[in-house]
Amino acid sequence: MIGFRGTRNTDGRPKGSQNKDTTVIRNCFQLLVENNLEQLDVDLKKLEPKDRIKAVLDLAKFVIPLLKATELTTSTLETAFNPILLTITTKEDIELMAKKFNEQY
Are the CB atoms for 86 and 97 separated by under 8 Å? Predict the structure, then answer.
């Protein structure tokens, strides 16, 4: 391959900058919500409790970022920890277990 052919769009949107239309729409939606907070509060209070909770959680998606689910694999944790099970009934058992522990570690 020789390389880039053609002309580059030097007047395009810089990498990482927001789309102008998206910014305008977000600002308009924010104004719409801000101007109707009292009515929104009245409407929410008219809902049944379970519907009110659902509505609040649905609205929260626009304000609070969603967290990604993560998975924890325990393959390394299983080998890193060796559980020690002790059944102690007498003084001799305690001394024997202490001796075995000291020998092992």
Answer: yes
Residue spans per domain, the chain: 20-104
Chain centroid, CA 48 distance in Å: 29
Residue pLDDT tens, the chain, 105 long: 566 677 777 777 777 777 888 888 888 888 888 899 999 899 999 999 999 999 988 888 877 877 777 776 666 555 666 777 766 678 787 788 788 878 876
Answer yes or no: pTM beyond 0.70. no
Token pair, residue 102, equals 């000291």
Say which amino acid occupies 104. Answer: Q
